[in-house]
Design a protein that fits this description.
The complex is a heterodimer of chains A (about 220) and B (about 170). Chain A has about 220 residues and is an alpha+beta fold. Chain A has 7 helices and 8 strands; from the N terminus they run ββαβαααααβββββα. In chain A, the strands form 2 sheets. Chain A has a 4-stranded antiparallel sheet with strand order 1-3-8-4, with helices on one face. In chain A, about 45% of the residues are buried. Chain B has a 3-stranded antiparallel sheet with strand order 1-2-3. Chain B has 2 domains: about 80 residues, no CATH class; about 50 residues, no CATH class. Chain B is about 50% helix and about 10% strand. The longest helix of chain B is centred in the N-terminal third of the chain and has 42 residues. Chain B is mostly helical and about 170 residues long. Classes of the chains: A alpha+beta (about 220), B mainly alpha (about 170). Chains A and B meet through helix 1 and helix 4 of A and helix 1 and helix 2 of B.
């Protein structure tokens, strides 16, 4: 696990590395130092940032975004892994569609807002896990038949061959999908593991910037 | 020839096949990337006149997996069909706009022959709600005198409707 504000590359299973060489997982750990709850309301500066970003995205850009290099790379990657991006939207397209439908990027709690800001700023999606529930380094692999999503007994079983983000012993999230409920950050979480999914065509700088944006916002005193 | 030589040959052949299939999958991914970019470019450039192809009802959203050769081929074929359909629609639309521009030119040259004919700017490939229309100059006088002119309407209706002409002090 990375430490001291640096991001590290996650591991990839051999078949993933061979088939999707451009796919990378950037992982970083964050000590949450703000006073307010991680899942509570956002402070004024975060809300202000969301308003600024809302103004940056208007109808014309919402349509044209699929042609921008980073969002286009995620669209292509979705096709490569069997996702239909016009049905399951890429994270940035989903965020922009929400912006259009609701008239702005609405606040949904501090952590959600920070992840959204990083996504809209860079086009790179970032997810957060409770660091206490993560064992070892994160990476990407295919799920085993019947394997559970998370270490919880009640967790749902996965079919084999699903691409997942996993730690040393369990699948913790479906790639571009659901996080294992027991591993999501809660109001009491003080240490987070952030991970950004970088695909072919997305410069590493963008993925690092996405993680840095989250870290800067969450570590602010 | 020793008894294990055929096994070595089989293993080599299998390795070759795996390498070949991996190269084929990489090639299909490159084709998918090109087709997806082509498709996105058409949708972005031609919006709203040409909408993105809609996924068929009941079409599976899919799940993130490593696709095999057959699955990648199906994705590629679907995208190729989409791209072909989009290109056909673009050609149709370009022809429609060309005819509309010709019509506008005729309306401009001979307004008297196109009395009250309306041509939305959308038909010309432009955005907005404007409409070109041949109208009589000076209303009824122009209609009687045969003075016709091509005018462009002011655009989209206001979100709150037209401004009230009622005196603010007058009773409702």
């Amino acid at each position: 696990m990375s430490d001291g504000g640096e991001s590290a590359l996650g591991w990839r299973a051999r078949e993933v590395e061979e088939e999707l060489p451009g796919l990378q997982l950037l992982v970083g750990e964050v000590q949450y130092t703000r006073r307010q709850s991680l899942t509570g309301g956002s402070p004024p500066e975060i809300r202000q940032r969301l308003r600024e970003l809302s103004n940056r995205f208007r109808g014309a850009r919402a349509v044209a975004i699929r042609r921008e290099p980073v969002p286009a790379a995620y669209r292509v990657f979705f096709r490569h892994i069997g996702l239909e991006p016009d049905v399951v939207r890429t994270p940035i397209e989903a965020a922009v569609l929400e912006r259009m439908l609701r008239g702005g990027f609405l606040t949904r709690g501090l952590l959600e807002d920070v992840l959204l800001i990083a996504l809209v700023d860079t086009g790179v999606p970032v997810w957060a896990l409770d660091a206490e529930s993560v064992e070892g380094q994160l990476g990407i692999r295919s799920s085993r038949e019947g394997e559970r999503l998370g270490r919880c007994e009640q967790a749902s079983a996965l079919p084999g061959g699903r691409l997942v983000v996993a730690d040393a012993s369990a699948a913790l999230a479906i790639l571009f999908g659901e996080l294992a409920p027991a591993h999501r950050p809660s109001a009491r979480t003080r240490r987070l593991v952030l991970f950004a999914v970088q695909v072919a065509g997305v410069p590493t700088l963008y993925a690092e910037e996405a993680l840095w944006t989250c870290r800067a916002a969450l570590e602010q005193a | 020839m020793s008894h294990y030589e055929p096994q070595v040959i089989d293993r080599d052949a299998q390795e070759d096949r795996e390498i070949g299939e991996r190269a084929a999958r990489a090639s299909l991914r490159a084709q998918i990337a090109r087709l997806e970019r082509e498709r996105s470019a058409i949708v972005a450039e031609r919006f709203p006149h040409i909408p993105a192809p809609v996924a068929m009802p009941g079409h599976l959203a899919g799940a993130p997996t490593l696709l095999d050769l057959g699955e990648l081929e199906r994705v590629r074929d679907r995208l190729a069909a989409d791209a072909q359909e989009l290109h056909a629609r673009v050609a149709e639309r370009v022809e429609h706009e060309r005819r509309a521009r010709e019509q506008l030119r005729r309306m401009e040259l001979e307004p008297g022959r196109y009395r009250f004919v309306r041509l939305p700017v959308k038909d010309l490939g432009q955005g907005g709600c404007g409409v070109w229309e041949v109208r009589p100059r000076l209303g009824l006088i122009g209609m009687l005198a045969g003075w016709w002119q091509l005018t462009l309407s002011s655009g989209c209706p206001l979100a709150r409707g037209s401004r009230s002409t009622r005196d603010p002090g007058s009773p409702r």
